[in-house]
Amino acid sequence: MATRLERIQSILNEICTGNPDITGAAVVSEEGLIIASNLPAGIDEQRVSAVFAALQSIAERAAEQIGLGKITRMMVFAEKGGALMCSGGKASLVIFIRQKAKLGLVLMDASDAYEKLSELLK
């Protein structure tokens, strides 16, 4: 039987190979530490974890101050692609996407993966 970390890694591998618009994925703890990742060459997982932990903290404070409630998803779009972060529990799923990604499919795949990961991260 696979360990919990192996199952998390398997979910990341599955989402990265199952959707051509997804170029990488990582699971980041509340403390900003990488739990598992499947990132493209040249992307430093420690930097990913630190940046997205900081973004989540800022987004949570902003959402709270304007009465939006708890952050569940956050997207960043840039010249060379984008990133989606799904959060709500003890860890967040960060997904990197191509610039012209089909967002509906990416969101569906991200939701499915996050649901599976949430069960493992309780």
Q: What share of the residues lie within helices?
A: 40-55%
Within CATH, the superfamily carries the name Dynein light chain 2a, cytoplasmic
The spatial strand order of the largest sheet comes to: 2-1-5-4-3
Q: Which CATH class applies here?
A: Alpha Beta
Tell me the Rg in angstroms. 14 Å
Structural shape:
globular
The ordered string of helix (H) and strand (E) elements is: HEEHEEEH
Structural class: alpha+beta
Low-pLDDT stretches: none
CATH topology: Beta-Lactamase
Second rung of CATH, namely the architecture: 2-Layer Sandwich
Beta strand %: 25-35%
Brief rundown of the structure:
The chain is of the alpha+beta class and 122 residues long. 44% of the residues lie in helices and 26% in strands.
Short descriptors:
122 residues, alpha+beta, Beta-Lactamase, five-stranded antiparallel sheet, 3 helices
Please explain how this structure is put together.
Helix 1 packs antiparallel against helix 3. With 122 residues, the protein is of the alpha+beta class. 44% of the residues lie in helices and 26% in strands. Strands 2-1-5-4-3 form a five-stranded antiparallel sheet, sandwiched between helices. It has a single domain (4-120), classed as 2-Layer Sandwich (Beta-Lactamase).
Please give the structural blueprint.
Blueprint (H helix, E strand, L loop, with lengths): L3 H15 L3 E8 L4 E5 L6 H21 L7 E6 L2 E6 L4 E7 L5 H18 L2
Antiparallel strand pairs: 1-2, 1-5, 3-4, 4-5
Helix pairs in contact: 1-3
